[in-house]
Design brief:
Length: 257
């Protein structure tokens, strides 16, 4: 059994700190608003369009749960990527800049425990926020458009969380490598821009983490596409996360206290 001295103490510290600084509250509140807004906008869009432009034919037909899924995923994944960068950029770089990282490591806390506790804490925080967003969207979709199945939406929540964790992992690597949180943010933003540009190449999206949005949509709507291979896209995304975290671990292990 692998022992990580100090892991639990660091994990508790990270979660409590996220709560006391209101980062956890703000993140969950923002995600819940996104989850509620998607079905509400889709439900009342035709009525709102009729009020704003009563004499024009703007082509807003009957809406339903598929439209909610489209809006929810586009908003949640984009907002989640930005939130991942902002929440992660100071995870290690901020503590190195203040000198607290090395102070902690002089105590019975291993470097592996220091890093993995931070990653797990971030994963837990984003899992909670993403779960609340999807739960809110599911509840309001059921209210407005009739009962929708639970399992596909639970799978949507996992895939959305996985997409966000890609940017958490890359930014975390930047937080280990860079000398400041701004430098770490550069890593995360470069990943967002780079993956967005790469996904514009025809046929490349299924091989990129940006394809997770299409995977989530296909799962929740039970759509079948010959161009889509959910297992491949998920595997590539998990690979990006794993490689980023292993590189962060390797790099941090070679820094001098």
């Amino acid at each position: 059994m692998i022992r990580l001295p100090g892991y639990r103490a660091i994990l508790e510290k990270e979660v409590i700190e996220a709560w006391r600084t209101y980062r956890l509250v703000y993140l969950c509140a923002m995600f819940v608003v996104i989850g509620i807004a998607a079905p509400v906008i889709i439900r009342y869009l035709p009525d709102l369009a009729g009020v704003l432009v009563p004499d024009a034919e703007i082509g807003v037909g009957e809406t339903g749960a598929p439209d909610v899924v489209d809006l929810l995923l586009s908003t949640l994944l984009n907002a989640g990527a930005i939130a991942a960068v902002l929440m992660t950029m100071g995870a290690v770089a901020g503590e190195k800049e203040r000198g607290t990282a090395w102070l902690v490591l002089t105590k019975p806390v291993g470097r592996a425990a220091f890093l993995w506790a931070k990653v797990v804490a971030l994963g837990m925080i984003f899992a909670l926020a993403t779960g609340l967003a999807v739960l809110a969207a599911w509840l309001y979709s059921s209210l407005f458009f009739g009962q929708v199945p639970v399992l596909p939406w639970a799978q949507l929540a996992f895939i959305a969380w996985l997409s966000i964790m890609v940017y958490v992992a890359v930014t975390f690597l930047g937080s280990v490598v860079a000398a400041s949180p701004l430098g770490a943010a550069g890593f995360g933003l470069a990943a967002i821009v780079g993956l967005s540009l790469a996904s514009a190449v025809n046929g490349l999206t299924p091989w990129l983490p940006t394809g997770l949005g299409e995977v989530a949509k296909a799962v929740v709507l039970e759509e079948v596409s010959t161009d889509l291979d959910p297992a491949r896209t998920v595997a590539v995304s998990l690979g990006v996360i794993l490689v980023s975290l292993l590189l962060a671990w390797w790099r941090f292990g070679r820094e001098e206290v």
